Every structure is written in structure tokens, then in C-alpha cells.
Fold this sequence. Notes:
The chain is built from 9 helices and 19 strands. By secondary structure, the chain is an alpha/beta fold.
Amino acid sequence: xxxxxxxxxxxxxxxxxxxxxxxxxxxxxxxxxxxxxxxxxxxxxxxxxxxxxxxxxxxxxxxxxxxxxxxxxxxxxxxxxxxxxxxxxxxxxxxxxxxxxxxxxxxxxxxxxxxxxxxxxxxxxxxxxxxxxxxxxxxxxxxxxxxxxxxxxxxxxxxxxxxxxxxxxxxxxxxxxxxxxxxxxxxxxxxxxxxxxxxxxxxxxxxxxxxxxxxxxxxxxxxxxxxxxxxxxxxxxxxxxxxxxxxxxxxxxxxxxxxxxxxxxxxxxxxxxxxxxxxxxxxxxxxxxxxxxxxxxxxxxxxxxxxxxxxxxxxxxxxxxxxxxxxxxxxxxxxxxxxxxxxxxxxxxxx
Length: 351
């Protein structure tokens, strides 16, 4: 099937990064207080690399954001604050995915969003794509299911591309019988959709995501491209840890795929996990793989753990042309996501 669009790799040039200012207290039960200050630091680092577009739930939230950004010394000419109501702030999933057409023009793939097939309060989030299209002037595209039965439900955190035709995804996210996004669709159907809408000529299926993942298997907590031919995989070496067996299975799958005849070879590099991060007796999805690549800069979640340094050094060696910046994420991950989950890049396409 001929591809209509191509999803650029995350390290390809961005026009801007989009985030949404935190406001939904149940996402960080009892801990919402410090979260805006974490966001202000994220915005400060991002603003040194590219413009930052910030969605604010209300005028009051916009004023709170303005004050926090000023306190962190974020230049006012590097950020824009827009009043756009939202249920939650995980724009990786609720915001559209930026793609480029054959003419280099920017398009916004507005997947159907249904609260990860888990939550009922998602209707404001489902309108974020239309709001962003209005703010950018880019065309909004609604991908449809390959069987013609309506819009395709997907989230950006579940797809990872190298910009050259290879896509990573997990079976847990799309092929299990938990939090089913598109009833009736199977492996071949999804591969057709990825080819049509994202320009993916090859889909590599991993098994399960990490323990504690509220989305049930998003790829961005476990496996990421850092170059067209390099994948980093979160791998737990301790056999007693719940992440060990699933990450070992994913490592073996990637190694087999890397050596598969007829396809471009790639290298697999492992990242450690931090020690388990537990809050209120719940294990949280703490993972260094949830980093975000901006223009010349990589933001990496850190967890006050000895493996922080190992993860930062590994990524610095793999991306020597990027500045690697650690962002404290112990409070942030209580919301069941960190840096990649809360960001969405806007590729630098022609409008």
C-alpha cells in the first residue's frame, strides 16, 4: 500500500513542542502542588531548544502557568499560552501526531481518543486535535480503520518510529483483550494502518510494556529509537524483578528483528530501570526510556537512583550532538507518566 504520509523521527527538526499545564488533581493524588514547578523547569529547558506551546485549561490556569514560568526565568518570547480545556495533560496521547506529506507539508493525524479505553472523562481531550489545528493552521486528518468501520483509536505513546520506515509497537497494547482500542482489528490490520498513515513499511512487535503502565503497554516506556539504526531498550537484569522476564523477551525479539534478512540491520542498546518507585503501595512506571528528544536537547527522567547516571551517560554516548538534561521525575511519575508522555512534537513541515 502506498503511504500517504511519513511520521518523522523525533530527532528530526521541530517547529515547536506542545505541552498542557497540569490542573487535574486526581492525576497526582495529594501531590499536585509541586507538579507545576516541574513543568516550569521542563518548559525552561525546552525553551532553550525550540518554541513551547502550552495549553491551559482555563484563564486561571493560564495565569498560574505565567507566574510559574516567570519564576523559573522562562523567556516570554519562547512560550505561548493558549486557553484550551482538557481533561488531562498527557498530550503524547490526546494530541495529534505530526506527519509530513509527500510535498513536505505538515499534517496533524487526529486519532480517535477514548481515554485509553479505561477512563470515562476524556471528551475535552478528544477536542484537542481540532484546537491545535486551529492554532497551527495545519490540516487535521482523521485516520480511519483499515476495515472501514469508523475512526482509528490510537495514542502517540504507543508508536515509535525511526523516520525511515520502521515502527515499534507492543502486542500488549493492541492485541490483548484488556483496554481494547479497536475491537475486531488484528496484527495485519494494524500493520496496514501504520503503513498507510505513518509510512511504516515494517512493524516490529514487542511483547509487554513495563510494570505499572496505566496505558497497558505503551512502547515509550520500554523501547525508543535514538538513530535510524539504534534502538534503546529498558532492560531489567534482576530475575526477581517483575520487569525482568518481559524485558528479556523484548530484548530477544529486537535482537531477532535486527538480524532478520531482507531488512536494514540495527543495533540494540540496553538502558537500566531505576529501582522500583512505589507510592501508596502502587508500583509506578518509572523508566528512563520515557525521554523526549527536542532540537539538539534530550530531556531524561531521573529518579534519585544510582542508575540515573548510567542512563544519562548511555544516552549521551548514543546522541553526542545533543545536550542531555536530567529532569527529576519522582513526583511526576505519580501521575503514571513522565516526559515523553506529556510532550508532543510539531515537526518542522511546510504549512
